[in-house]
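Give me structure tokens for this 161-residue protein.
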Amino acid sequence: MISSNDLQQAMAKFATGVTVIGSLETNGTVHGMTANALTSVSLEPPMVLVCIARDNVSYSNIAQRGRFGISVLKAQQEGAAQYYGRDRWERVGDVAVEWQLKEGGSPRIKDSLMFLECRVVARHDHGDHGIFVAEVEETATELGQPLIFYDSQFRDMGNAK
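Here you go.
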């Protein structure tokens, strides 16, 4: 069997968009987590899945509340990706991000390239991650270029080579 490092190095060659998954803590505080594990599951009904480490605060929040928001970041939002990609205790200072709480209770990063408001319909725990399958209840899109993650680095479309 390969090591986790071998898989991580191989997956680094798979270019993805960059998202921040927003969830609400029990006290109503927004928690954000950078992720690139987002997959479209179904168009009818509209469904996606996200994979979240089971020791992450987002996992607990989403499992308890059954709701989350996915903000796909623009190239100029790399700072948000870096900030929310750190462990909670390593987040120093503030990040220039404005959160909006949608009607259904899902947090969205204002001016993100795309937003999906999601309601969990299934959860599957495998290995060290949980897979949340969710119905998409609302979408929003903005003009702009996406932030890309490739070869373990953030990139924009201009330097995606």
